[in-house]
Amino acid sequence: MNYFKENRWIPWLVAILVVLNISTLAMLWMQNNRHHRGMDRMERRDAGKKNRMVKALNLTDSQAQQFKALKEAHREQVKKIRENIGAQKNLKMTALTSNPADTVTLNQLDQKIGNLHVEMEQSLSQHYNDLRAICNDEQKELLKERFQKIFKRGKHPEGRRGR
After folding, report:
1. Burial label, 148 (beta-carbon count in 10 A; 0-12, 13-18, 19+)
2. 43-75 confidence digits (pLDDT tens)
């Protein structure tokens, strides 16, 4: 009992430290939240590596603008294809669960889904060729190396392939 009477300042010190820690964490959380407010998921993901490809290829400002426009156009095209694949898979699920399952419809839906995947791969090839067209010889070699790394990892440039 003597110990607590002699050291009455220890509980106050602990309370002050707890308040300081909580306020520090709150400030960090609010600052991080403010930074990401208004950004969609893709923008947040790209924010950290915003100019990674631009820097890696050493693109000029005009090339960087062209690159950004091409990337956005490709992203929109792939997004539409993926939405279409999702719709076809929903139809397939409906056909699968019908009694009896319509194998002709299932085969047609499988063919459509496969064709959409082919279309997505063709879009990627066209995107590579479009990017390559704005590069000089040195940049073309760097672009080739970047795409080779992407394909060796088995990831699509959008980062969601294989999920």
Report:
1. exposed
2. 656 555 556 788 888 888 898 899 889 989 999
Q: Answer for the pair 95, 109: CB distance below 8 angstroms, yes or no.
A: yes
Residue 127 is encoded by which pair of tokens? 């995107």
Could you tell me the residue ranges of all domains in the chain?
2-37, 52-153
Domain boundaries 52-153, CATH class: mainly alpha
| Residue 156: DSSP 8-state | -
Q: In this predicted structure, what is the pLDDT of residue 32?
A: 76
d(CA 41, CA 118): 26
User: How far is Cα of residue 138 from the mean position of the Cα atoms in its chain?
Assistant: 28
Q: Whose structure tokens read 């990831």?
A: 155
pLDDT confidence of residue 161? 47
Task: Point out the residues of the chain with pLDDT beneath 50.
Answer: 159, 161-163
Q: Where are the alpha helices (DSSP H) in 37-102?
A: 41-47, 52-57, 61-97
- Cβ atoms of 59 and 133 within 8 Å: the answer is no
> Which residue type does 82 have?
R
Cis peptide before 100 (omega within 30 of 0): yes
